[in-house]
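Every protein is a chain of amino acids, and every chain bends into a shape of its own. The protein below has been through that process, and both of its lines are reproduced in full.
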Amino acid sequence: MAVISLAQQAQAATYRQGSTGEQVRIIQTKLKNWGYYDGAVDGIFGSGTAEAVRYFQRKNGLTADGIAGPATLKALGMSTGGGGSGQESTVELLARVISAEARGEPYSGQVAVGAVILNRVEHPSFPNTVAGVVYQPGAFTCMVDGQIDQPVADSAYRAARDALNGADPSGGAIYYFNPSTATSAWIWSRPLIKVIGSHRFCA
């Protein structure tokens, strides 16, 4: 039984041609953002994705086999999470965004950022998965400036779990922004729900 479990775990952390799903979409998004891939971010590991993985592997001194195994996933900044549940990978992704976007904010502000992402998942105007919301082009500054790949604060993991358990200090917000760095006039037009730390949370 243990052998089967280990085989499943190894399989869970390897993506190759024919694989599909959110993790493939994340691989494609990262490769696209870094200029290795110019195909569709569709969650389908086709020949174009395999070629992009090979290109990335060659540039990073990895075995260029076109298979996203543990070493390649690590180089991509993705948790290999052998056999980790979907819930754990959701916590990891949510924590990464919370840490990148709200590091140094009050704890309730960190939970609120996580809640905004989950509120978007439930909202008809946004993708219906956490990964879909996070990787939506232009949605979060941290995806553009590389902050998403920085070490994650311990408090961000707690905040992610609290948000997933239903805590929402944002009061149902689907947007937030820092007024001292916001460059979009449109975001100022969103109805304010509350201010936590340096973020304004809006409907």
Q: What stands out?
A: Residues 112 and 161 are 12 Å apart (CA to CA). The longest strand covers residues 192-196.
